[in-house]
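Continuing the series of single-chain predictions for the mutant panel. This is the parent chain; the variants come on the following pages.
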Amino acid sequence: MGQYAEGLNAPFRILDYGDLDASKWLDYAKFKAPPLAWGYGIEAHKLRKYEKHLATRFNQVTVTAQGEKEEFESFGIPTPCTLIPNGVDFSYFQLLPDRNVKQVIAFLGRMDYFPNVDGVSFFARSVFPFIREKHPAAEFRIVGSNPLPSVKELASIPGISVTGYVPDVRPYVQDAAVSVVPLRIARGTQNKTLECISMGIPVVSSSTAAKGIQARPNEHLLVADTPQQYAQAVSKIFEDPDWAARMAEAGRIHIQKTHNWANSMLILDSVIASAKKETTAVLR
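Parent structure:
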């Protein structure tokens, strides 16, 4: 999505990559069976070629995550790339007061989106049994609209519930001890992670999903990839709630600085100001 910095005839153009999706299609190809896998592989190749070509037609590009900035820089294209982090609405996703925390594990996200479906299915079938073995009262609550039949089926597993659409996710995480983001396919910023951290809920994320936000593992959130790592991380939060609360608070304070819309808009303002300056210089 490119925009001229100053009018339709201005020579300076800025391109904002909502996502660099070619890599995601490559991931889809790994998780899908033929012939879909072949289709995603072909699409990934074509899209990556176009992503590179498009950047050469612009004077400046912007991305929302550090991982995507590094990915763009690997293209070897001289077009400057600026990171403008996504923000979170701190006035809406406020620290939840007086929480009656239970052994509830929450997941937030649209449940007709393949990475979310794959992630909760992996967690429900490969991780949750390990957690229930050690913590029989544990619950896994899947909160999100349009659950596919394969997601609804997960509710047949003891301890798992699927809400479907809810008008406000906050009441459904009010008692959650932890939010999980077990995505094996992830690009860009996981807003669900920012929202939960903003509400003071400890987060356990896959290493892939964690790359999309500016938070440090073991300081602001926990990172896991294998079933055993997830089970250990969730158990640690269950068993040491004081430590978990301190980590969550450190994460909340951190993202208020790093994922603040006002700060991100200042970065955008500086990009546009530079564009105007260069445009003026060219037009003289």
